[in-house]
TrEMBL record:
Name of the protein described by the UniProt record: NADH-quinone oxidoreductase subunit H
Enzymatic class: translocase
Organism for this UniProt entry: Pseudobacter ginsenosidimutans
Main location: membrane
UniProt GO molecular function: NADH dehydrogenase activity; oxidoreductase activity, acting on NAD(P)H, quinone or similar compound as acceptor; quinone binding
Oligomer and partners: NDH-1 is composed of 14 different subunits. Subunits NuoA, H, J, K, L, M, N constitute the membrane sector of the complex.
Substrates-to-products reaction catalysed: a quinone + NADH + 5 H(+)(in) = a quinol + NAD(+) + 4 H(+)(out)
PROSITE patterns with a match to the protein in the record: COMPLEX1_ND1_1, COMPLEX1_ND1_2
Length: 353
């Protein structure tokens, strides 16, 4: 069987490679400057100034921190499992980056007569893909904690794994209710339905609240940062790590926070839809490509609001005890999510009649 290379669409491959590199670069830059923004937000809440030495307003501080992590001595404990010790942060970073593959970042660009959608892949099971990749992220925590051969790291990894697995249940149940409303698992279809109708947060306010709480737990953010409880576990599951291996864990957390914010904006707040503006009329007046650019900026503005919420909560709400963490999940969120799913199913069935 002879395979002809002429039939292959090389432009399609180039488009996807450029899009992948662009999304990865933007995610890394945003994760880097989330550290600067978090310090500024913390300083504002605590009536301080925050970073102000490295560049104007301290904007070069993330670059200095990144350079410091690159230049630090890399230490691997003698009693650790070397291969798994290296695999842990790599897996955490990989799963954090893979979740962005199914997110629609904007409309369709018109590039020399070619329609170029700002989405790496538009699969029919987009939400399930996100859940599958996020579920793999717990292995980065578990492998890193176990391979360190440190009892505090192992205890923190066990906490992190049980927390992530537990809070995936109410998050999944909240998305089942959303699926009953939208009838599709495709991220682009969910955004399209919200553009044509109203945002899903108005149909599913309780589902959005449950998803938001679970997103805090999945990202190990305060008040759910039990795997990194410094006063109990020294430094959490990555306390034996240094240099860029530690940087990978820290970057993965901020990338997860960024991607979680994008997903919440996509599923419940219309994604890249510009509120109170007709995208079709806007494209007629300023052009399709400029409209897509404004859509992308709108999505990032919605995402920035959620990122600020993550930071605001961190510096205003104290950390839960571990028993309170599990009590909230199993005795509060899961029953609420089940009730929300049953009520949504009944309402959808009634209106379909």
């Amino acid at each position: 069987m002879q395979i002809t290379l002429l039939a292959f669409d090389w432009f399609f491959l180039i488009e996807k490679l450029v899009l992948i590199i662009g999304i990865i670069s933007v995610s890394l830059v945003i994760a880097m400057y989330e550290t600067w923004a978090e310090r500024k937000v913390a300083a504002f809440i605590q009536d301080r100034i925050g970073p102000n030495r490295a560049g104007p307003l301290g904007l070069f501080q993330p670059l200095a921190d990144g350079m410091k992590l690159f230049m630090k001595e890399e230490i691997i404990p003698n009693t650790s499992n070397r291969m798994l010790f290296i695999l842990g942060p790599c897996l955490a970073m990989l799963t954090a980056m893979m979740t962005s593959a199914v997110i629609p970042w904007g409309g369709t660009l018109d590039f020399f007569g070619r329609a170029v959608p700002l989405q790496i892949t538009d699969i029919n099971i987009g939400i399930l893909y996100v859940f599958g990749v996020v579920s793999m992220g717990v292995y980065g925590i578990m492998i890193g904690g176990w391979a360190s051969n440190n009892k505090f790291s192992l205890l923190a990894a066990l906490r992190g794994a049980s927390q992530v697995i537990s809070y995936e249940l109410p998050m999944g149940l909240s998305l089942i209710a959303l699926l009953l409303v939208t009838g599709s698992l495709k991220m682009s279809a969910i955004v399209g339905q919200q553009i044509d109708s109203v945002y899903n947060v108005f149909w599913q306010p309780l589902g959005f609240f449950i998803f938001l709480v679970c997103a805090f737990a999945e990202c190990n953010r305060t008040p759910f940062d039990l795997p990194e409880a410094e006063n109990e576990l020294n430094f959490g599951y990555h306390q034996e790590y240094s240099s860029m291996k530690l940087g990978f864990y820290l970057f993965a957390e901020y990338i997860n926070m960024f991607i979680s914010s994008v997903i919440m904006a996509t599923l419940f707040f219309g994604g890249y839809d510009i509120p109170f503006v007709s995208d079709a009329k806007l494209a007629e007046s300023i052009g399709q490509n400029w409209t897509v650019l404004l859509q992308g900026l709108c999505l990032f503005a919605k995402t920035a609001g959620f990122i600020f919420l993550f930071m605001w909560v961190r510096w205003t709400i104290p950390r839960f005890r571990y028993d309170q963490l599990m009590h909230l999940c199993w005795k509060r969120l899961i029953p609420l999510a089940l009730a929300n799913m049953i009520i949504t199913a009944a309402v959808v069935l009634y209106f379909k009649k």
